[in-house]
């Protein structure tokens, strides 16, 4: 650009001197100057020059001190007997005196969450009483304390014990600010006088099945107590269930104590393993550990097999199986050999044929066989189903033109475990309508609980006469020894069984010869009358599965959480089941959970309908409070409002801070390394502060200064040419 300017200037001066040199003195020089200015402006606009330079700026950067105030910091493991927290606090005060002239100092105390920003003078108001430690939240809070370009670094004073859900390395790897990690404390195991018993783990399933054997494993570590015999107690809701003796060793790694238990009461329970402290122990808080589990009856899984897409199949699947929130089903209609129409609400399960392997069949609690000819079931498949029934599952066979005797089940493995003699293929059908007549056993049986009034008995008609009759049924023979007949067909001379049950080893078998129960749902619903359809099928399936609870036909709301105790930062999963006024699961409700902390603060979260059994809703909630939380779920179903009882969960379990007590130098070193900082123990960390303080605080700032501004330069260019043109006219020049 400089060469262009020199050449252009030389040419202009030479040209103007030759052309206008005879003008009065000063005139041609004025014209030269104006033309040179115009050329300079054009060159600047074309080349757009920028000046680069550095300048020094004095500034006072921000230095953040993160002070761990969790409960583990009150331990005195220094030779001086000074607690970890006091050591850290005094160091900050000492370092502040050195640094205050060159830095803006900020203090942020933290435990399970970061606290408000404090001055050094306010440190005396703090105490180590936090219930958990979240190093990740502390680092996030420090990064937000000042703009990134004003931050010099972060001093993290902690014992490194992190017991929250989010790993601190997930934050430190993206922080972009040097962290100087200062370790406070020591490894207690290195002390020859240290004595401790600690329950380091409790393996308890989050959900336990009612009356099923559960194994709860406790992991125990001891230091300095070789050969000592202690008693390990297992408690359910503070009630002692079992006690075992354990001889303590002094080897690295935990000793395992296993408790076996069959929970007998549904609901949320707290299970605790505890060892009484010995006299030499200084820390007794880590001698127990608790876990919460929800004792439930598992959802019933039904495998429904049909041979035709008949109307009864549609009623059972659409109006019962898909509506009952406690049932998962897999329905297979075999339209020809090994070709099926399938429906299910079980995610991830895909059956290409009727199963015969033990692993698949063991997933089901009830086998429901409809109008499926026995020729579609191989001997291997039948024997596998029978084996599963004898082990505890249920078998229900329904009436149809290709079931029971007409379906060729006489003499087959399945036919032999049914409660009635099914006869041969020539048994035929009852084609006249009738209502099943209950026997005395039927009126008392769980399958017909609360719906017996819809059916006649031998001595009287039904109390509620609104139920339409069945269109007929499949003929069968007599009941087998050991069977119980619950209902008969009153229009046959022999009063043929219609509904019969029988125990089969640990399982149960049922025969229901009707195939038009859809009328029990369709007609009353059209006439806005009460129907036993849902209760009949619900209680029939439950009895076959070994469950004997009754099915209620009313609107209801039940809620639960996946756990009762959560680590800080851990997400709470809230679930709810909503039934409408007919007792069917519904996805038409508006479901909201309110979460209240002990302080009175609250949050709300909306639950959404989820795939699977009808009426199931769920939501995820990330707690912003610690300690006990009350969760109450409400559902709006049209004009009806349903409310659950309060669920209490704990965020940050008691004594969490005493489960790990040794200084975790590995975690602190990793944080410092990720951020370009350094790690030092508090006893040798003064050099880090001195090094920062001695560094030059004057920072060179790189500056780019453009030497052009187009709008101004174009205006100047036009002005210069205009002035030159006016002067040339005045000088009478062309």
TrEMBL record:
SMART domains: VWA. The keyword Endoplasmic reticulum does not apply. Residues 60-214 form the VWFA domain. It comes from the Bacteria. Gene3D superfamilies: 3.40.50.880, von Willebrand factor, type A domain (3.40.50.410). Keywords: Membrane, Transmembrane, Transmembrane helix. It comes from Thermogutta terrifontis. This is VWFA domain-containing protein. The keyword Kinase does not apply. The chain crosses the membrane at residues 6-21, 33-54, 707-727.
